[in-house]
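Protein in question quoted for reference:
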Amino acid sequence: MERLFKTLQDRLVKELRLSGAKNCEDANRVLSRYLVVFNHKFSRAVQKSGDYHRNVDASVNLDEILAVQTARTLRGDRTVLYEKHWYQVLTKTRAARVTVYNYLNGRMVIKNRECVSV
C-alpha cells in the first residue's frame, strides 16, 4: 500500500499540474482518465485465487488484542493519570505498573501484570 501511495503522490501531482487542473472538478476529470492508464500499467494478475483467511481460534480473545493498551505507573495513593484524567484504583494491589485497556466499545479497564482488573 505504501508503494501505491508513494507512486500516486509522485506521479499524480505531476499529472494534475501538466493537465492544468484548477479545481476539484478538473482534478476528478483528470483522475478518471489517469486511473485507467495507471491500473493498466501497474496491475498484475493474481497467481492463485481463493480465500486464504483462517478462522480465529476460540481461545483467542480479540477484544484484548484489539484494545489500545497503555502502560502507566500506579502512584502510592493508587491513582493513575490517563488522558488528562485521574483514576483511582479501588482494589488493593502492590503493583507499581498497570496497563490501561481501551476497548473498541468504549469501555476502559485498568489491569496489573497478572491481567486482573484493578
